[in-house]
């Protein structure tokens, strides 16, 4: 979880970006009207469409990044899932208006990382009534797309693709778990060349290995109430955390993930350029930039949204953008 930077004043005015397609149906507008009316917070809303250009929408709401703050909302609030949050966060990068999140999707990992409860109305009450804190968060430039949560390649991406919208709406996070088991069972390993830069533009270290899946993390949570890979994986530390899942065995992977959920196992870090824990099905690395080159086409998802696969022999870069967006969260206890 991110460390707090400073207490934030309660908002006098907010603008809410609502994704109507995210998660289960909720009376979002009715809840917002009731909560914000009772707290006497001025508000407006935009219902997002598939064609919404977030940069243009935010320029219209906030003006240019160096424009005066007078007349602008105190917060931009996203009501949607992690994919929507990621897209808005990319457009908010470098702006001086903070971003707040309501849990309107299926996983709601970003909302959890910011300390919010998963019940929508309870989260709205806690967020808008305070106390709250402002935090500087990193983002990831993931092969040209903004990422706030994680980029997943191989089985992780296939898992996201197979957990279809209907299943996610009906089963919630269980849909992802079911899809994960199916992918670990059916899919083979992929050979990947990984180049690590521990300092941007500095010396590089290379690793060639076979993986079932590869995760590039900004947050420590893998999913709704899920595993925390390492207590020092944080969205405000200026690092990418890279996870390799090496074993294609269902019992090995699921037993290890369960041990992390139970907090009975902590994933140790390996040095970039070498596999440091051959007895474990998972390895954890740290870098400022990672360049991947798979030997065969490798599926890619970014914050739950499928992307074009990485082609065999092609390179894709993933780079941390430290402290580039301000987020509102509940106080860290």
TrEMBL record:
Span of domain DAGKc: 9-146
One Gene Ontology molecular-function label: kinase activity
Keyword ATP-binding recorded: yes
Keyword Nucleotide-binding: yes
EC number: 2.7.1.-
SUPFAM superfamilies (UniProt xref): NAD kinase/diacylglycerol kinase-like
PROSITE patterns: DAGK
Enzyme class label: transferase
Keyword set, alphabetical order: ATP-binding, Kinase, Nucleotide-binding, Transferase
InterPro entries, per the entry: ATP-NAD_kinase_N, Diacylglycerol_kinase_cat_dom, Lipid_Phosphate_FormReg, NAD/diacylglycerol_kinase_sf, YegS/DAGK_C
Name of the protein in its database record: Lipid kinase
């Amino acid at each position: 979880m991110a460390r707090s930077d400073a207490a934030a004043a309660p908002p006098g005015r907010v603008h809410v970006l609502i994704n109507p397609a995210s998660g289960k149906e909720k009376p979002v507008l009715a809840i917002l009207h009731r909560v914000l009316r009772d707290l006497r917070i001025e508000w407006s809303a935009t219902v997002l469409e598939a064609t919404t250009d977030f940069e243009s929408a935010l320029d219209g709401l906030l003006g240019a990044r160096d424009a005066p703050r007078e007349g602008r909302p105190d917060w931009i609030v996203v009501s949607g899932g992690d994919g929507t949050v990621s897209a808005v966060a990319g457009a908010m990068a470098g702006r001086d208006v903070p971003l707040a999140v309501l849990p309107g999707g299926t996983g709601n990992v970003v909302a959890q990382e910011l300390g919010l409860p998963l019940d929508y109305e309870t989260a709205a009450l806690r967020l808008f009534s305070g106390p709250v804190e402002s935090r500087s968060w990193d983002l990831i430039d993931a092969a040209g797309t903004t990422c706030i949560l994680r980029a997943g390649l191989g089985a992780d991406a296939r898992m996201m693709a197979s957990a279809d919208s209907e299943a996610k709406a009906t089963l919630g996070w269980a849909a992802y778990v079911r899809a994960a088991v199916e992918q670990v069972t059916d899919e083979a390993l992929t050979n990947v060349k990984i180049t690590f830069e521990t300092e941007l533009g500095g010396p590089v270290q290379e690793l060639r290995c076979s993986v079932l899946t590869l995760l590039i993390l900004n947050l420590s949570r893998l999913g709704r109430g899920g595993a925390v890979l390492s207590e020092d994986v944080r969205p405000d530390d200026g690092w990418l955390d890279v996870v390799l899942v090496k074993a294609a065995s269902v019992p090995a992977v699921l037993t290890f993930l369960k041990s992390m959920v139970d907090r009975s196992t902590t994933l140790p870090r390996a040095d970039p350029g070498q596999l440091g824990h051959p007895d474990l099905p998972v390895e954890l690395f740290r870098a400022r930039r990672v360049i991947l080159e798979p030997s065969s086409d490798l599926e890619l998802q970014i914050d739950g949204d499928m992307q074009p696969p990485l082609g065999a022999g092609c390179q894709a870069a993933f780079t941390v953008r430290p402290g580039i967006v301000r987020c509102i969260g509940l106080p860290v206890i």
